Amino acid sequence: xxxxxxxxxxxxxxxxxxxxxxxxxxxxxxxxxxxxxxxxxxxxxxxxxxxxxxxxxxxxxxxxxxxxxxxxxxxxxxxxxxxxxxxxxxxxxxxxxxxxxxxxxxxxxxxxxxxxxxxxxxxxxxxxxxxxxxxxxxxxxxxxxxxxxxxxxxxxxxxxxxxxxxxxxxxxxxxxxxxxxxxxxxxxxxxxxxxxxxxxxxxxxxxxxxxxxxxxxxxxxxxxx
Length: 225
Known about the structure:
This protein is mostly helical. Helix content is 74%, strand content 4%. It starts with a helix and ends with a helix. Strands 1-2 form a two-stranded antiparallel ribbon. Helix 4 (89-113) crosses helix 6 (159-187) and helix 5 (128-142) runs antiparallel to helix 6 (159-187).
């Protein structure tokens, strides 16, 4: 019970910070996500220090430079550019809403119907039933985004485009979740950090987003052309 309360309070605070970032000024958004970027990078560096010793310089360069740059730094910078430089904050908010809805529905369906593991060695708690339930439920919910004034725009002009966006975000976000799980297993750590009581680290919270933002941006760009 104490753990549930801790997770709930931390989740509310985290969502409040995101809301403050997205619905405040562009400087607030830039500050919040730059702080997230810094913390996530520090968490990754600490994980790397727990990796088994690398025998080749190429592997060390990949772990210490290439992976954090392309996996953490560039996606967060792209998110900031998408919101501030291209004035498409509503699309990014929708992306986060889709990921959050999918996580919730996947947990519910997985808890009730989950029997077949999605990828046992990497993420033993995820099931095919949860994944499919979350995917279908979130795509169905995304159908109505076109009806909400805040999300109306001149790029995603109908429900089918929104559903395609939800599909792309969920699939890529799932791979992002798997990627972080693999990193943590390689480092033999349960969480990336402890800054968010009951949830782990910032990297644990934004792992899905790190893959979903580049894919979502490409999808959005295709329809914007």
